[in-house]
Each structure stands twice: as C-alpha cells, then as structure tokens.
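ligand=magnesium ion
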Amino acid sequence: MQHAVETQSLTRVFRPKKKKEGKVVTALDSVDLRIDRGELFGILGPNGAGKTTILKILSTLLLPTSGKAYVAGFDVAKDLLEVRKRINMVSGGEISGYGLLTVRENLWMFSQFYGLKSKEAHRRIDVLLDRFGLRDKDKEKVRTLSTGQRQKMNVIRGFVTNPEIIFLDEPTLGLDVNAARTVREFVVDWIREDPNRTILLTTHYMMEADELCDRIAIIDDGKILACDTPHNLKKLVGMNSTLTLSVGGLNDINDFGSIPGIGNFSSTKDAEGNATSLRFILEDESAVSDIVSTVLGKGSKILSLQKTEPTLEDVFIKLVGRGLE
Amino acid sequence: MAVINDLRLLKNSAWLGWQMEANWTDPFLFATYSIVKPIAGTLILVFMYLVITGGETANDFFSYMYVGNALYMFVAEVLFGVTWVIHDDREHYMTLKHVYMAPMNFYVYILGRSAIKIAITSFGVLVTLAFGVLALGVGINLGAVDWLLLAPSLVVGLLCICILGLAMGGVSFLTAKHSIGINEGLAGVFYVMSGVVFPITILPSWAQTISKFLPVTYWMEVVRRAVVPEAMDGLAASSGYDVTGMGDMSDLTLMVLLLVSAGVFFVMSIGVFRVADNIARKKGKVDWTTAY
Ligand SMILES: Nc1ncnc2c1ncn2[C@@H]1O[C@H](COP(=O)(O)OP(=O)(O)OP(=O)(O)O)[C@@H](O)[C@H]1O
Ligand SMILES: [Mg+2]
C-alpha cells in the first residue's frame, strides 16, 4: 500500500543571504520517513531540530534542497495541486484569520478555498465549533477573539476541509490545560474515525508525544535518531520500569531475587527499622503481581507502592546526550 | 467543473474583498473618499497644465490628456491593488500561507479579491470624466462615443493590467519590503512611456521603441478614439503631423496590436509569477513577513 507520507534522503539547507553573514544551516539531513495511512505519527525534537521545516516541505510551502518527499504518493515538489487537495496544516500559536469576518465566515471562507459545498461546510463548522467550545463565538468578529480562541479556530480551519493527511505543528503550544486536552482528545478521535486519515504532528512535549502517537521519530539537528512506537523506543534504549515499595514488618528479603522477570533488586531499611524500601527493576511487567503476593505471603504490610515508567525523556537523553527543554 | 469552481471562487473571494473595503469606514466617508481622491489627483494635473500653457482647458489636447490621465488611474490602482492583496494577506491577516497552500487557482483568488478595487476605481474614473466634462469642458460627447470599440478594449486592457499586477504580486513574495517601490516604478514607466498625458512622439526615439511594446500605449490610444473621437480628429488636423504616432493605424490594427502586446505581457506575467513563486518556495519566503 502507498504510504501517506514518504521521504527519501530529504535534505534542506538554508544559506545566508550574503556569504559572510551567518552560516549555512542544514535544517534537515537525509531524512527518511515512512508514515502509513491511519497513523498518528509524531516528530519529537528540541527547538531548531527541523520539525517545522519537514512540515513546510510536505505542505508545499518550501522546496527540498535534495531528496524526495511524497504525500499520498504525489511528489511535493511537482504535483502541487494533487498534494494540496489532500492536506491541511495547523501551527500552534497561530493567530491568523480575516479579523473583520466572523468566526463562521472566516471558517467558511477557507472551506471555499477547498471547494467545499457551503451547506456541507456549515454542517462541519457546527460540529467543530461545538467540539471546541466556540459555538457561542460563531457570530463574533475574529479580531475580538482571545489568542487561545483564535488558535482553536485555526485548528477547526485545518480539520473543516476533512483532509486525508493533516500536519499539526505543535498544535497545543500556548493553549491552557483544558484547551490542550480538548485538542488532544479531538485529534485521537478524529484519526480513529476513519482508517484512511493520517496525522503528522510535531511537538516538543514528551508527554504529548507519548500519549498520542502511534509512532514517534526523534529528531535532533536535522537528523532522525530513532523511529518507533513509544513502547519500543523505551525498550530500544534498554530502559525498564521500576517498582518501589515501602513495606512494614518485613523480616527477610529471601525469595525476592528469584521472582521471574526481575532484572535487579535492592532493599534499604529506614532509620527506625520499621519500614523497608524495596526497589525492583522490571524486565517483565507481569512480575508486579508476584512481588506483591510474595510481600503479603511474608505477612508484611505494603505502606506505599510506586511504579515508574521510563519516559521518552530518558530515551531522548540517552539518544541525544542531553535533555529536551 | 473546473470553470464552475473557479467562478465560485471568484465570487467568494470578491465577497471577501468587498468585506474588507466596505469595512474600513462608513459608507459616506467611503463614497467621499472614492470621489474626492481621484478628482484631487486630477486637479494637480489640471493646474500644472494651466500654469504651463497659461491657457484654456476646452481644447482638443486637454481632452486628450484628461482622458489619458483618467484611464491611467486603472493602471496605478489595479497594479497597486493586486500587490496590496498579497501584502495584506501576508502581513495583516497572516493568512497568505494558508491561501497559498489551498488547492485553488491563486490567480482567480487574487482577481476576485481585486474585483472590488477595480469597481471602485471604475467609479472614480467615471466621476473624474464627468467632472472633466462638466467643469473643464472636456470634449466627451455621449452620442459620439464608440461603445463597440470601448467595451472590448476596456476588458482586454484591464485583464492585462490585472495579470501584470499578479506578476508583481509574485515578485512581492520575494521582496516584501520593496514591492511597493517596484510597483510605483513600473507604473511610472507606463505613465511616461505609454502616452498617458503627452504623445509618445515627443519621446526620444529609443524610448518610442519601448513604447511600442507596451500594451498600455495602444490601450490609451484605442480608448481615446472611442471616448473622444472628435478631439482626436481635431488634434490630428490642427497639428499637421502624426502627433500620437499611431494616427495612420486603423481602429482594427490598433485593437490587434493591443491584443498581441497584451497577450505577450500576459504570458510574460505568468512566467514572472511562476519563476517568483518557485524562487519563493526554494528560499522559503512564502510565509515570511517583513518583520523578519
Ligand atoms: N527560512 C529560514 N532561513 C534560514 N534558516 C532557517 C529558516 N527556517 C528555518 N531555519 C533554520 O533551520 C533550523 C530548523 O528550523 P525549524 O523551524 O524546522 O525547527 P523546529 O524543529 O521547528 O524548532 P521549534 O521547536 O523551535 O519550532 C533552525 O536552525 C532554523 O534556524
Ligand atoms: Mg517549529
């Protein structure tokens, strides 16, 4: 089957205007990506990594310096119209819009650029305004909206044309907690609704990438360092979950070492000697129940229990050698 | 199908343009502005004429000049208006990026957005001409106007200027800062080289060669023949030589020359737009603003 997005050695170099001013920036360096239909694919990377540059190339705003990029099988450098018919893009923090139109008029206008029938456009606008809690604003002028409201309107603008593939460039940037959650929930619902839809999203929020994406490409300095499911990425770098228990009345720590699925295990008694802190590195998540039943089997009480998952941040630090923020 | 879609787009983007023009001020101010501005601009020229000739306005040459000047308003306003649309979408509404990447005919969109500007300018031209006839004795005689010549030449000329504006709009992708200056320069070339207020025959011969490639040159001549035929005849008779440099051409020849030169400009303009568009995508300038 044809990929929703495919890039082959995609490279983009920015040269300074005058030779002596500034230096040549390789924003993308031989990027190879294959994104299937139905995927919610994330590109995770720090500021200046090249995330926006990829999206600009895929959305026909920017030409590659070398290499190829295909959207729905069409070359983004040549088949502009075919690509444009199938895509839309939303950037976080985006406050664009015809300020003197109402919210509805503005959304309708953009739907017209995509040749939508007016009736269908208004039907979709209704649904989306409701979903994003902007229904009461539909007759307000765009210029009177707050920044966050404008941004939500722009998210609607992107989805109202029902694109096959949508590019979301840090879509929750600058939104408050609730609005960000609305956007994330919508994005997940949208992609599950139709297996032919594809989302390519960039972010530098680890949690967002982890929570939303089927697969993630980690990019730094224009290079893809890894690309896999969040789960596999964490495994890839040899990270395991840890389970930490605080246990009361524990007399011996025999048997814990022989529970299957445990990679490593340590124990420390607290100062008064009442509680013991046990820390397990889990190679297999199913070891948790064995650990708990072993503790209880010894007649001890569990005072607290905490399971820590490895985060993408751990993955990132391991791959890049530094943190993300 | 494609044509129907383009017509819908033309209508809708014209509506958008109308919302913007009608929005900026109340109707009374708006009407005043679109009457006062063209007349004020024209009066400057009239005063210069009076000072230089020390004479009369009710003569053939004044009619020649006045009509050319009124018609030139189209050149200046449309050329400027089209670029302004791109500038406005880019800098003010920040929508250019999305407009650009929409699967629509960008030319049609720009044309639609500019339509209201053309309508307003047409109104200004009519007001100016009426003012000329009533207050200054410009020799327009409605009975003598050659409508059959006027209508097609107006359409061809306006289309040609629109498409030229589009090419300039494309260039403004690249030099957001300088595009207004480039436009004024281009408008200036037409003003001097196309026989707007004085015949091209007073230009040096090298300049006249350039004039002969400019569609506006033929446009001015054809429209004058259609609107003030008597003054044109009178001018030719009184000066005793081919004062416009096109006196011995028939109306048909002029129309053909207008069509051909407009066609060449049309093709060239689309070429310029495409090249500019391509460079803009190569350099990543489509969604830039001058703030950068
Ligand atoms: N038009 C341009 N001209 C010159 N350099 C550019 C241009 N656009 C991007 N760059 C450079 O390319 C690199 C990648 O930029 P890009 O915008 O893709 O980063 P990003 O991953 O989106 O970062 P952020 O998280 O800050 O949005 C940066 O070093 C940037 O300075
Ligand atoms: Mg970015």
